[in-house]
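User: For my dataset I need records formatted as: sequence, then C-alpha cells, nothing else. Please produce one.
Assistant:
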Amino acid sequence: MAGIEANTPIPVEIKLHQKSRVLELVYEGGDSYRLDFEYLRVYTPSAEARGHGPGQETLQTGKRNVDLVGIEPVGTYALKLVFSDGHDSGLYSWDILYNLAKHHDELWQEYLNQLESQGLSRDIDTTSRPKSGGSCGHH
C-alpha cells in the first residue's frame, strides 16, 4: 500500500479524547468520525498483526482498555499511533483511517463475530507476546 490515492480525504482536525478513549477525525465539510482506541488497535495495519498475506492475520484480543498514548505524523501521508500496550508499529495512512471511519460498524461487528467464533475475549490478551521466557519460537 504505497502512498495514498489522490482523492483520499485528509482530516482537517484530529482530536484525542483520552477520557472517552476516542480519536476524532474531522473532515472538510464537517464530516466527523469517532474511532475508539480499541477499534484502532485491533485494526492496526502493522505487519505483525496483519501478516504478509490473506489468512495470516493475527486476531488482536484483550484490547478493551488500551489507551492511545501518542500520535506522530509520518510524512504527509500517515499517522503512527502509539498504544499503552507497547504497540507502535502500525502506520495509519489517511486512506486506512478513512476506510476505518467509513466502515466502522461493519468492521467492528466482523471483529466481534471473529472473537466469538474463536472463543476469544476483548478482556483477555492472547496476542501480545510475553516479554521474557516462553519457548514458542517467537522472539
